[in-house]
Amino acid sequence: MKKKYLNLLLIPILLVSASVYGQKKNKPNPLKEDAIQSIENRYSDLTNLSDQIWSFEEIAFQETQSAAALSDYAESLGFKVTRGVAEIPTAFVAEYGSGSPVIGILGEFDALPGLSQNKVPYKSPLHEDAPGHGCGHNLFGVASLGAASAIKDLIEEGKIKGTVRFYGTPAEEKFFGKLWMVRAGLFEDVDVVMDWHPAAETKAAVQKGLALVDFQVEFKGQAAHAAADPWNGRSASDALELYTSGINYYREHIKPTVRIHYHIQDAGQVVNVVPDYSRIWVRVRDSSREGLMPVYERVQEMAEGAAILANVDYEVNLISGIHEVLVNRTGSAALQKNLETLGPISYTEEEQEFAKKIQEATGKPENGLVSKIEPMEETAVHSMGGSTDVGDVSYVVPTIRLSATTAPNGTPWHSWAVVAAGGMSIGHKGMAYAAKALSMTMVDLFENPELVEAVKADFKENLGDYVYKGMVPPGPPPIKSNLQ
Amino acid sequence: MKKKYLNLLLIPILLVSASVYGQKKNKPNPLKEDAIQSIENRYSDLTNLSDQIWSFEEIAFQETQSAAALSDYAESLGFKVTRGVAEIPTAFVAEYGSGSPVIGILGEFDALPGLSQNKVPYKSPLHEDAPGHGCGHNLFGVASLGAASAIKDLIEEGKIKGTVRFYGTPAEEKFFGKLWMVRAGLFEDVDVVMDWHPAAETKAAVQKGLALVDFQVEFKGQAAHAAADPWNGRSASDALELYTSGINYYREHIKPTVRIHYHIQDAGQVVNVVPDYSRIWVRVRDSSREGLMPVYERVQEMAEGAAILANVDYEVNLISGIHEVLVNRTGSAALQKNLETLGPISYTEEEQEFAKKIQEATGKPENGLVSKIEPMEETAVHSMGGSTDVGDVSYVVPTIRLSATTAPNGTPWHSWAVVAAGGMSIGHKGMAYAAKALSMTMVDLFENPELVEAVKADFKENLGDYVYKGMVPPGPPPIKSNLQ
Amino acid sequence: MKKKYLNLLLIPILLVSASVYGQKKNKPNPLKEDAIQSIENRYSDLTNLSDQIWSFEEIAFQETQSAAALSDYAESLGFKVTRGVAEIPTAFVAEYGSGSPVIGILGEFDALPGLSQNKVPYKSPLHEDAPGHGCGHNLFGVASLGAASAIKDLIEEGKIKGTVRFYGTPAEEKFFGKLWMVRAGLFEDVDVVMDWHPAAETKAAVQKGLALVDFQVEFKGQAAHAAADPWNGRSASDALELYTSGINYYREHIKPTVRIHYHIQDAGQVVNVVPDYSRIWVRVRDSSREGLMPVYERVQEMAEGAAILANVDYEVNLISGIHEVLVNRTGSAALQKNLETLGPISYTEEEQEFAKKIQEATGKPENGLVSKIEPMEETAVHSMGGSTDVGDVSYVVPTIRLSATTAPNGTPWHSWAVVAAGGMSIGHKGMAYAAKALSMTMVDLFENPELVEAVKADFKENLGDYVYKGMVPPGPPPIKSNLQ
Amino acid sequence: MKKKYLNLLLIPILLVSASVYGQKKNKPNPLKEDAIQSIENRYSDLTNLSDQIWSFEEIAFQETQSAAALSDYAESLGFKVTRGVAEIPTAFVAEYGSGSPVIGILGEFDALPGLSQNKVPYKSPLHEDAPGHGCGHNLFGVASLGAASAIKDLIEEGKIKGTVRFYGTPAEEKFFGKLWMVRAGLFEDVDVVMDWHPAAETKAAVQKGLALVDFQVEFKGQAAHAAADPWNGRSASDALELYTSGINYYREHIKPTVRIHYHIQDAGQVVNVVPDYSRIWVRVRDSSREGLMPVYERVQEMAEGAAILANVDYEVNLISGIHEVLVNRTGSAALQKNLETLGPISYTEEEQEFAKKIQEATGKPENGLVSKIEPMEETAVHSMGGSTDVGDVSYVVPTIRLSATTAPNGTPWHSWAVVAAGGMSIGHKGMAYAAKALSMTMVDLFENPELVEAVKADFKENLGDYVYKGMVPPGPPPIKSNLQ
What we know:
4 copies of one chain form a homotetramer. Chain A is globular and about 80 Å long. In chain A, 40% of the residues lie in helices and 17% in strands. In chain A, the strands form 3 sheets. Chain A has a 7-stranded mixed β-sheet with strand order 1-2-4-3-5-13-6. Chain A folds into 2 domains: 2-208 and 325-463, Aminopeptidase; 211-322, 2-Layer Sandwich (Alpha-Beta Plaits). In chain A, helix 2 packs across helix 5 (137-156) and helix 3 (43-56) runs antiparallel to helix 5. In chain A, 60% of the residues are buried. By secondary structure, chain A is α+β, with helices and mostly antiparallel strands. Chain A is built from 14 helices and 13 strands. The longest helix of chain A has 23 residues, at 425-447. Chains in contact: A-B, A-C, A-D, B-C, B-D, C-D. The interface between C and D is large, with 40 and 39 residues. Chains A, B, C, D: Keywords: Hydrolase, Signal.
């Protein structure tokens, strides 16, 4: 499997890279100044686009309007757009330029169920029970496209050579659309990929997050009248309940970095019948796919045990699984320089007040928005927290990642609070900042082939002899599974 | 609590009653002949009405069209109809005549979810996922109204005196509508009530069935990210799962007549969040309410145990509960005589063929339809099987019950097969037969005050000093709970 | 499998048999008077022997002194004694006479753990934590040997012809010694077997009791330090706990006549180690072996399910299993006559006082000792309660069974109260009464070949085409398993 | 609660302390040379004493012979010995000298159940099922007493002034005897305490280990015949099983540093009775007592939940609980210097061969014995692994701790392998080495009041405002609980 990250070896490279590719603080090179200007010129377009997607409230694989809005805008700017890639109606690629290097940038745009929210600093659903952008993806896709557009301008103006390619990547919150885009070979000819994520702080993103796998277990028994002849029934609910018991007993025997969680989706239909069908969605996570796999195997096997205990049949079906991120510290160091050049986002008093009210409403310390640029973090061996399907992209192409502030410090993620902040100027500012920082780093990559090579070398070093294989079942992506 | 049924004491009474009130076989008295003729005259109306209700496919508390069709028909015949009684929009009373005796008759008309079926002897849904009359209630209400109409004719013609009252009783399959009709005092001035039920055999119904209680348990915990900080979560799903574990352990310590079943209705919303809400529907049954109550108490208490184990809050809410039937063998003996007079239903070869195809399709012995009249059964101390909200009526007024063949021998009840047979001539014949047998027995009651007194004495004897109290929560019936 | 008991067919036979073989009340025939006299002559020997065995307090397969005392006494009377039969050191056969018929009689003599008690009517252990005769087996073996001795006298005196054979049958309370005695063919040449059991009433014993099977499940995992690396452990305790969970969930799906109980014998050794070994003793019962077998199969299979859930190995080992009793109502009717002839046991006021004090101490109605002879009971289709390894004898040879009063009405069996009463005159009287009734019925069998034939015919009728197969593992009986 | 360890602040102190108190490598000061000589002079005594204790195989609170052997030897050397301190018959204090400073040293000597082993490099019990020194405590007490004796010689010879005090501390493996010794105030006048522990490597011991608490939960229900009337039983085994289910579900909601383990000690007595009694030993651990307490509270509360679920009574009883170690890096740095002066233990080829055979037999890499002196480790915020009741001593007096090699690299601790190595020259060498290193560091403490002050300052800094309270129930220690 892949080699462990060799921190000591890389530090000298980083030091060198800083001196070779870096720019002095507060003195961006002219191309970067051009890129920043491009983004400022399109600020109104970008915020309108972001607000539209915010109001579309479309969940994974159902992002029809959002994908169309981004595609149309890219097309209007001159990008060549290919829609419906990788058998996913809402996935698309927008490309400009030709030849090497090919620099990609990722843009997500799906919302989360049940988080619809007005642009106010207290919980207030815009549409009852409707989805909302609780992960800031209305900003994500737009900022990336904004950065790509700035690069397009430079290519168009002949200032740099090569290809810039924007990936419209749906379904990050559920199913993990990038898996099928990787499977379709869409990243095969790319040199480096960039992305960012809305966050409560601004920094080069150098943590791995968690690998995970999602699968469903179905149990199939025999129905019977629960009062008249329960002895003729074989209960699929019994099997499911014994399965979760087994999983909970197993928790003693997993490493502290492993997480197993499940969602009982169906454990019977009516009270007076022994249920003949049940279904559970299980998720296993670990800080690496290497650690994940034996646990995944075990939890699958346990389904058989539960089925035997309850005398029912069972079926296990993989939904999808993602890798942790293969962090590229060389690329991150280049990004870090640009953050230091840009400096922190500045906020108005009104924005800070709005932020503090959100913090008050969510029980967090009322210290407002934070966007100070700290030195680049160490990459932890086991970084806990969330997961992203950018992980799989990072295993096939070197990936440089940014976090930019779009919500108050300490905001609970995947909550109404992120929706609220992402729908107004706080979110807009983060979006524009991200677009600038990403475009500046892309300028570095276009201008410095040595940087591209160093980023690639870092990728190879980290990957070692690990042979990537995406974790998706055969056949098309589960586009319709998310329809209600 | 109520006295046990005194079989030995009653047998002499039955022997006497047979000689006093009975008629000789095959020689119905003239009023009974009139009643039979009335029903034959309305055969076309009644089968049309039954087929309409069959096609309405309306579930508990949603039987708007079915209740209207029956009410309208009763009104058209001259009954005085009161709609929307007992705070239930689909409950109604249709009355004719005045003064004593007041003889009631019950009519149900609700369908069951998911059983929609064509009139063919193999599984074939008429409307996908729609309800269907898998318990034959399309026939039930109509036959009872047919019997009431025959009595109305006799009153109208001055041949008998008193009041006949038809009760349109919704929601027998879920929630148990009669509970609120009893609570509303609608049975207070009635002398005797009759009812029947579609079945696979024809007989006086002298088994008690099971008392039951339905209640919901909700657990309320604290949500948390299942990977990032599950230690900040308190899982409502854990509580629910530990609650069902507790229930299953408890099964060792309940009497063989007790049944406990449950339906997990909600155990979490998404896979990556520690669930803060869960809900389970629990049903406890026993052969008597007396046996039921301590088990019901225990299973309620257990919710607290599970809540403590999982560190969550909980709430237990009564839905409703019904008594077993207080069997009236004196009245049943009078009914039995009339069955013997009427003799079995006769079937065509086509009907027997249809029946055998249903039996083939449901894996039962292919012996067709059975309607032979057997001697009246013993009443078992513990009769297992199903439950009915007629139980509660039988605890406030003496109730005489009939089963009449409307489906092939051995048909799995609450299945498509009952829907199919109940929608064609097999069902129609059973319906007409039931109407006749019920009206004949009502003639006995109207003609013989001594029979009414003996039936009442039997009721009092059985009831003993038990003080009936219906098991429903305060407030209106849960009319909207069954809306999807 | 075996045919159901045909009650209606047998009743005429019984009526005939009563008139053919019976004697008039209070007029025993002279041989029976001789037998009664024999027993009275040996009353002092028998009570001494019973008190000795009472004081030996020896549990299953460890009854060395008790078996020796009975064997020695039989030998001293002239019986030919074979000790250590069927590979069981404490099993023996004492025979007298030769030729047909061969009439056997069973005698048990094992005590129960933890019931040591003084001869006082309140709980008072004789030896702390020592066994005691809580099932009255100190009386059982002695009474049977007393009856056999009376028959021996008659053979010796030439008054009857044939063979009487006493079976010293150990380990009835655990392991079920008779299984191996049956396997060894010790009952192959016997015509009829008799036995009795101490009880709280006196009657022909015509209920079947329960078939049962005992087996052990062992789980074998991998030990690990429970704090340092529990993820390297595979817990045998987890497997056992999930196994019992599975069993408890399964309770919903067994018939009301089935019982499953278990004893967790070992679920880990110390608190800080993931346990690598666990063991559970499981017992399944049903009212018939026919009903028992599929449940037994199921509960065995479940061990595999639990093992898979916990990722451990497992082993299932049969301990032993017994049949319900094949009741012989023809033989029982002959016994009933003799009970009616003998009439009830009479008690002194002191004995009734002692009995009432026991009843007071155990919270029972204080109505003293009951030995009235009631008419013979119906044999229930499903008779619940306890089990006996006489069941297996009854499946290979017709068996006639007696209950005789040796303890107060309502005494909790397997308690100190049975020990107390069985150690003093109440027990002695029951023992002598049993010896008399048994010897009288044996006289009937020796005198009336037609009775023997009728008893055999009843046996054949009941057995039908069922082919008996004892449920014991291959190899010798588990003599050493009960050593501490 | 106590302040977190302030690593950054302490590093300068350590650097200073090294230059002030340290000696150059390979040049021990004369007093240390004297101490080393003392130990070498007594080498034969010490190894004999260690081998005796090894062969006594005495478990917690039963170490009568071992305590006597150590006490007698101390007395023979001139120590003033007080036996049976802190209400523990096998606890004692051996003191020499007078006045300040008072330097204590701890000595353990209890064995572990079931680990009896011959002095051979493969599993081979010396006495079947007997205890064995699987934690090397036969060496522990002797080495500490050896070190104390060397100091005694120096005091006796007038070379240093003050008091040396050896604490004979029983029951470290179970119950944690030091808790009661702390409670009895035996450490109140001590300046610094030292101890060591047998290990597979040689180093200053600067990890905290885990705090833990042990408690028992008993459930008390109602017995009933498991076949005849299980509905009259309330099962203490059900309660216990539901309790462990609850614990296992709770594992999802504890922090990764927490461990919960349990030992089912009694879950029923016989298979055919609903068990009325059950008992479980539960242990909760965390990297700090602060983290431990809320989990301990929760797991106690859960007993009530399980009791309610199973309708039984329950009782929770604290056994004892220990703190993690309050590490004293200032003292450790002084010890580290002495280890560097002494250098590694050297082994013969035979010893290395013996070690490799043990490694082969236990499936470890066959790399023999390791005693190289590495630089002092960082103290981890959360150090996982085992626990020690030295933790509580370290919370009332500054404690300096050593690990010394007495077993092959990678040896599974608490195994036969530790017993084997600890009974022969490998163990003896480690014991002598420990005695020397400890005595050298004690010389530092006696010679340098500034060091004592710095050690005390470190202690105070770490303790902060935390107020120590030992976790033991009122009343005497559970001396008899460990008798079989």
